[in-house]
Amino acid sequence: MARRGETLELAVLGLLHETPMHGYELRKQLNAVLGWGRVLSYGSLYPALKKMLKAGWIAEHVESTTAGVAVSRRQRIVYELTVTGNDRFAALMAESGPASWEDDNFDVRFAFFSRTDMEIRLRILEGRRARLEERLERVQSQLTRTQKQMDRYATELQRHGVESVEREVRWLSELINAERTADLKHDPLASKPTETAPTGAPPPWTPGKEAK
Q: What is the DSSP string of 133-174?
C-alpha cells in the first residue's frame, strides 16, 4: 500500500476507534488530524472507505431517523470499526520503523499516541528527532554555502526553514524527557523508598567498634 494511502487508512481507523461517524463528520475530523496543510476531498475519502469496507476493517449502516422527524431524501451512512479493523489499527500503531517518522505519517501517529505503548512512543519520537537533526545539519550546511549567491528573500526563506526544524527538535526533546520522567515515576524500583531504621532502634553496628 502506498504510504499516503496507509496514512489515510490509519487516520480513519483511529477516528472510528473512538466512535462511529458518518461521512461528513469523518471528513471534518480527518482534515483536523491530517493538519492544515492537507485538505481531504470526498474524492479521496470515499474510495479509501470502499477499500476498507472490502477488507472488512469497517462496516456501514444507514443512520436511523428519530420518530416524528421528516425522513431526508439522502439518508446518512454511518461507518464503524469492526473487530478486524481494530486489530488492523493496533498493528499499525505498533509499527515504529522509519516510515513512522516521516512528516505526514508522524503527525497522524502522534494524534493517536495515547493508544501506543510508551516504548513505541519513545522509539518514534527519538527516530523523528534523529531524522530532523540530519535534515537540520544538511540545510544549515546548504545555507552557509549558498546564502551569498541568493537575494535576501530567498535567504530569509531558508533561515525560516532552519528555525522551524530547530523548534521541532526542541519540542521533541521536551516530549522525550517527559516520557522518560513518566516512565521513572511508574518504575517500582526507581520509586522504592530507602529503608530506614525504626524510631528508637539502636544505631547500626560498625566493625571494629565495641560497645561500651
A: HHHHHHHHHHHHHHGGGS-HHHHHHHHHHHHHHHHHHHHHHH
